[in-house]
Amino acid sequence: MGLIRKLIAASAVSVACTLVILPAHAEIKGLEIIAPANSGGGYDQHARALQQVMQDLNLASSVQVVNVPGAGGTIGLSQFVTAKKRNPSLMIGGLGMIGAIRINKSPVTLDQVMPLALLTGEYQPLVVAADSPIKSLQDLLDKFKADPGSVSWGGFAVGSPDHILSGLVVKAAGGDVTKMNYIASGAGGELMAALLGNHITVGTGGYNEFASQLQAGKLRAIAISAPQRLPGIDVPTFKEQGLDVELVNWRAVFAKQDLKAAEKKQLDDAMAQVTASPQWKEISEQRGWINLYKSADQFAAFLTDEKGRIEGTLMELGLVN
């Protein structure tokens, strides 16, 4: 069983275990959620979904989302760790932050925050502008093989899942990853502008980030990183096109490391209620998020394993020493 299938199976068990009546807690007032990226990207979308559902469920009030972009999320991480605030705060993070910390040699790491809950996973498409001469994955690979420098691969920060996926595609196709022209084009609106303006050849990110432009016919998806075709999404997988590439970009929520036991339990219970709620499930379905929920202790164990796996992949791709 592959990693993605194991995660989905394990999360189903986790959610089943949360379908009990959890003890009531006082409403969390003045909660701040750090989204360590610009608006519109995956971190921002998760922060705002969490804001909405926590308020709908009366788990928190006056919830504010604060965008702190830069360096693959490590600037937001640094601010989250070092800020001295009275109000309770959370931070959205994910797979990409592991790579960003290593590549940017960040002095602040995920060892300085508390893993609170693994939330979701998302498969990633490769997309091109609708007027691009690239009509298929094979067209892209042929162009790269003929002249690697002529293909610019766009996505979030260096070391992000976008960067990793681009490298995995090149490697699986027998190309030289060191010749890959990867451009950190940002997330959300920044990446969209670069794609639609033909400033980059191909881009990647969470499917939902591109969904509206794909439906409007302004972008074309040529492959997706799922193990098999996704319901309602007419995009071929890498595997069915002959490339052994599969990747799920997980997102999670972190808390301050110095939480008291009672505070950790309150937030842990809150995340269980959020992820089991009809509101969260509806948002996830609309955005194509896979439920990967794990509680605080389960997520901490997962994160330890995931750091080793991702750092190994980064080394294999030549992104870190």
Automatic annotation (TrEMBL):
Alphabetized CDD domains for the sequence: PBP2_Bug_TTT
Q: Which InterPro entries match?
A: BUG (IPR005064), Bug_dom1 (IPR042100)
Concerning Gene3D superfamilies, the annotation shows: Bordetella uptake gene, domain 1, Periplasmic binding protein-like II
Signal peptide span per the entry? 1-26
Q: Does this UniProt record's set of keywords contain Lipid metabolism?
A: no
Keyword set includes Signal: yes
Taxonomically, the superkingdom here is Bacteria
Give UniProt keywords alphabetically: Signal
Regarding protein family, the annotation reads: Belongs to the UPF0065 (bug) family.
Q: What's the protein here called?
A: C4-dicarboxylate ABC transporter substrate-binding protein
According to its UniProt entry, this protein's organism is Skermanella stibiiresistens SB22
